[in-house]
Amino acid sequence: MINSLKKFDKRYPFVLVVFLILLGSGLLYARLMNYIRWPNVMGIVIIGEGLYLFYKRYLK
């Protein structure tokens, strides 16, 4: 299963970056609108991970 995920990631590297940024943004939005009571840190960490992968793959 891990090998298939690695192949998918090599074939479409931008999907994971976009997914992480959208997921983190969605969590922050849901927290700001008081839909959930999770800490804001989780959304910020997920967005940061997506931006780090973007930097590592495309800008470096």
Question: TL;DR of this structure?
Answer:
The chain is mainly α and 60 residues long. It has helices at residues 2-11, 13-32, 40-59. The chain contains 3 helices and no strands.
Description:
The structure is a single chain. The chain is built from 3 helices and no strands. The termini are far apart. The longest helix is centred in the middle third of the chain and has 20 residues. The chain is an all-alpha fold.
Hey, roughly how much beta strand do the residues contain?
A: under 5%
Structural class: mainly alpha
Mean pLDDT: 89
Helicity level, as a percent range? Answer: over 70%
Largest sheet: none
Shape, per Cα inertia axes: elongated
Instruction: Give the SSE string.
Output: HHH
Radius of gyration: 13 Å
N→C terminal distance: 29 Å
How many strands in all?
Answer: 0
Number of helices: 3
Key descriptive features of the protein:
3 helices; 0% strand; 83% helix; elongated; mainly alpha; 60 residues
Task: Please describe the topology of this protein.
Elements: H1 2-11, H2 13-32, H3 40-59
